[in-house]
């Protein structure tokens, strides 16, 4: 960041700081992600005059005219209603950097860096980074239920960090006071996605369970030590979001219903619905050609072969599956020219169906040969 203001005319004369995750990750020696900036002492009009593009809804946030990085005016907030939207913001030119940092969730996210590289750390976040502790900034932590989700997600991302006991106590109060019930499913899903794609996704759900929030934000989800281990397997296997979500939900009585409740994308809902079906079929699998063909057809593997392979690779985290063998089976069945078989069968639906079944069965037998 050093020299940024001197090189960038859009920032000349502005009091700007990098804040939050980029500073934290730099202190941890981790790769830098997106940078967030805070501007102190400026007005929305001054930002617009410099070419910054306003994008904020509840408070002034701007995109840099060239880099498109986000620059937010320093602000304070106070509770004015229930839920994570129940806040009133103030962004006057009198708001200081320290006041802006004070409204943040965790001390490790409340560190700023000036243009000359100087660290501003009024809340001792650097000490918590060194001690590997996730600690709330202030009592206002228990006013915003999103902070509970973020705490759980950060616990998954920084799995070598402990959570301060007093922070867990405030998180539990969020649940007890009913604030967590104001979370909309879409906001829950945003954080679940981030948590599932960390190196230790199970820890997110462990923290949510510890605080009593899990049953409130993901009703009927069955989460236990076995699923925790299966999610760890998914990380080791570099599985996709849809595969990880299916593993998370596979013991839940109605995974499809849960997926729809949190507004998960249709692919994630499909994978969550189909993995238990596949698991049941594999548990009863007798290694017979007809059974293999039944499973492929039942899972719609002829039309969606990649989905079936994805589900098989997810199933590996639960029970032994020879995915390479299933790949051969799938390739063999799909190699049958359905059009040619239908033509040879004379065009009658029942005859075509029987001929296709026979041709695919013979192809499978050759592959198993």
TrEMBL record:
The Swiss-Prot or TrEMBL record lists the needed cofactor(s) as:
Mg(2+)
Tell me which domain of life the UniProt entry assigns to the organism this sequence originates from: Bacteria
> For the tRNA nucleotidyltransferase/poly(A) polymerase RNA and SrmB- binding domain, which residue ranges apply?
160-221
Record keywords, A-Z? ATP-binding, Magnesium, Metal-binding, Nucleotide-binding, Nucleotidyltransferase, RNA repair, RNA-binding, Transferase, tRNA processing
**Poly A polymerase head domain location:** 16-135
Q: Which family does it belong to?
A: Belongs to the tRNA nucleotidyltransferase/poly(A) polymerase family.
Q: What is this protein called?
A: TetR/AcrR family transcriptional regulator C-terminal domain-containing protein
What is the species listed in this Swiss-Prot or TrEMBL entry?
Mesopusillimonas faecipullorum
């Amino acid at each position: 960041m050093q020299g940024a203001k001197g090189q960038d005319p859009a920032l000349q004369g502005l009091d700007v700081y990098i804040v939050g995750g980029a500073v934290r990750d730099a202190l941890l020696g981790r790769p830098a992600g997106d940078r967030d900036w805070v501007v102190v002492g400026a007005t929305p009009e001054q930002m617009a005059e410099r070419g910054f593009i306003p994008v904020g809804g509840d408070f002034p946030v701007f995109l840099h005219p060239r880099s498109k990085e986000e620059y937010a005016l320093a602000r304070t907030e106070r509770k004015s209603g229930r839920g994570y939207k129940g806040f009133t913001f103030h962004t006057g030119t009198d708001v200081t950097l320290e006041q802006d940092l004070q409204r943040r969730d965790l001390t490790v996210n409340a560190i700023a860096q000036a243009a000359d590289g100087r660290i501003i750390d009024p809340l001792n976040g650097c000490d918590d980074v060194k001690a590997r502790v996730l600690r709330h900034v202030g009592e206002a932590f228990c006013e915003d239920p999103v902070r509970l989700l973020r705490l759980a997600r950060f616990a998954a991302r920084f799995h070598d960090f402990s959570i301060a006991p007093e922070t867990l106590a405030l998180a539990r109060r969020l649940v007890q006071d009913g604030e967590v019930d104001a979370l909309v499913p879409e906001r829950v899903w945003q954080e679940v996605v981030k948590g599932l794609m960390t190196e230790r996704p199970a820890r997110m759900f462990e923290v949510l369970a510890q605080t009593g929030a899990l049953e409130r934000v993901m009703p009927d989800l069955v989460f236990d030590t076995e699923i925790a281990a299966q999610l760890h397997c998914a990380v080791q296997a570099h599985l996709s979001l849809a595969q990880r979500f299916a593993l998370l939900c596979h013991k839940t009585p109605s995974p499809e219903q849960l997926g729809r409740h949190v507004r998960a994308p249709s692919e994630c809902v499909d994978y969550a619905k189909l993995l238990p079906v596949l698991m049941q079929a594999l548990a009863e699998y007798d290694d017979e050609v007809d059974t293999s063909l039944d499973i492929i057809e039942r899972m719609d593997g002829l039309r969606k072969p990649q989905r079936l392979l994805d589900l098989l690779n997810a199933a590996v985290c639960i029970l032994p599956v020879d995915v390479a063998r299933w790949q051969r089976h799938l390739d063999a069945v799909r190699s049958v020219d359905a059009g040619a078989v239908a033509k040879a069968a004379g065009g009658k639906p029942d005859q075509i169906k029987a001929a296709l079944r026979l041709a695919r069965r013979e192809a499978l037998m050759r592959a198993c040969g």
